[in-house]
Amino acid sequence: MIQVTRFVLTQEMVEQFYREGFFYARGFLTKEMVDAINEENAAFANEKGTGEWKSKAIIDIAAEQELYPETTRFLTSPDIVSFLEQILGDQVKLWMGMYAVVAPHGNGLEWHQDNQYTHILGHMLNGFIALDDISQENAGLWLAPGSHLLGRQPNINTEPGHKRAAEPENGVPCPPLAPGDAVFFHRETLHHSKKNHTDKPRRAYAFQVAAASCRYAQSGKRLEDRVLLSGYVKG
Questions:
Q1: How many CA within 13 A on the CB side of residue 91?
Q2: Would the pTM of this model clear 0.85, i.e. be above it?
Q3: I need a surface site. Which of 55, 63, 196, 211 has the fewest CB within 10 A?
């Protein structure tokens, strides 16, 4: 069986997550795991379409695990779940997992927070894992340190589609990421991605998890419609 990760989380990384809103995890996924995820999604990555940025999401693991066994095994791996629990200090629920592709010469996304979509109260974490070499040449990620401390920002996009926040003054590009490298950031950290200037699709895996204590802001209810990853047993 493919080993998912050999990464060791440090207390400084956890502290940086809460202080700065993000931290880097070099070599987070093994090469074998990266290759397995790419193989399962090869057709999607090379699929022709009208959009420049496209994604394929996993929310219901039980419904997806036969089609994407290695991708869902990564999401439910005890080592990965323990890693996420240490950061959020609670059991964790999967909000969504997403195979994310920026087409050749396609555009990324404007500055935004994921909490501008569904408003969640409590700590949530985003993981962005490079499945290719990713730099500013091929839709590299940008982050705004400390922006999670501002709270949920208003959406200034007047057109239908993706949310958009005002551009922060302190946005910085992520350093180049090798396949398997990751950056983890708070759900309210402002981020965006640039244009893919290359002739190849830029492949990444992005996922979001919530502390089990999180609640929907609109209803006050817990996230009962999301899968608890802690102690997950394959259906």
A1: 12
A2: yes
A3: 63
